[in-house]
Design goal:
This protein is α+β, with helices and mostly antiparallel strands and 76 residues long.
Length: 76
């Protein structure tokens, strides 16, 4: 069984993180999740992803261990 991939994007700019996440979901056709510090940042990331990558689907977002998990997938 193939292990899931993990990437620490902490050192990248927010714009670069958005681009990498969006391209991975939309161009590689992969379901992915990422974690941000708070709901304000989650809302900002979701808004930017939807603007830059029309059709991207937010499967879910929920609190976990004091942070927010956002799960994305490509359109059906």
């Amino acid at each position: 069984m193939k292990k899931p991939a993990f990437a620490d994007l902490y050192k990248l700019s927010e714009d670069k993180r958005i681009d990498l996440i969006g391209h991975y979901v939309m161009h590689e056709h992969k379901v992915t999740a990422f974690i941000v510090e708070d709901q304000e940042k989650a809302d900002r990331y979701i808004g930017q992803l939807k603007t830059k990558f029309p059709g991207i689907v937010v499967d879910s977002h929920f609190p976990w261990a004091g942070q927010i998990v956002i799960k994305l997938r490509p359109p059906a």
